[in-house]
Amino acid sequence: RGSSRHINMKSLSLALLSLTTLFSQYLTSAFAPAGSLGIMSSSSSSSSAGFQLLASTTSEEIVPREVLFGNPTHAAPKLSPDGTYLSYLAPSEETGVLNVFVRPTTDENSDNSKMITNDTSRGIRQHQWAFDSQTILYLQDFEGDENFHLWAID
Questions:
Q1: Are 92 and 99 in contact (CB under 8 A)?
Q2: Residue 32 DSSP class
Q3: DSSP strand E in 3-153: where?
């Protein structure tokens, strides 16, 4: 049987403060730009051991909108049921709209992928292989009306 030991609240608070201080430099560099991380003492019973970790984004160095909301370079990879093809969504070179691309799994060069759809409006967000490994199914609405239709490409 293991021994148990009583730890008083003051010791626990000091231990948590030490751990928070130890990781504050990591958290500041990873999540809060320009040193905007802080530790605040709190008398509230809802906070853990009386301390709160605060972060704010007052810096001009924020993540650009294009990074958060722009098209990915590759998304939603799918392997055909027989394992011979890889499909994925990527923006077309002409319009930058998401379309379905396919390449053989034996070819590691994604430059050899073939764009098999040609959407020029809103882009394709969902696609799936049919069980025959020759047909790709995808859903598409018309100009955002949310009336989705199922399309198939051989």
A1: yes
A2: S
A3: 37-41, 51-55, 75-79, 85-91, 98-104, 114-115, 126-129, 136-140, 149-153
- Report the b/e string of 79-103 with b at 16+ CB within 10 A: ebeeeebbbbbbbbeeeebbbbbbb
Q: Residue 12 phi/psi, 5° resolution?
A: -65, -45
pLDDT at residue 13, rounded to an integer: 63
Instruction: In whole angstroms, give the CA distance from residue 85 to residue 144.
Output: 30
Average pLDDT, the chain: 74
Q: Which residue has the tokens 């989705």?
A: 148
Tokens of 36: 């905007």
Q: What share of the chain is helix, strand, coil (3-state, %, to 5)?
A: 25, 30, 45
pLDDT tens across 95-150, in order?
888 999 999 999 888 788 999 998 888 888 889 999 999 999 998 888 778 888 88
pLDDT value at residue 111 = 81
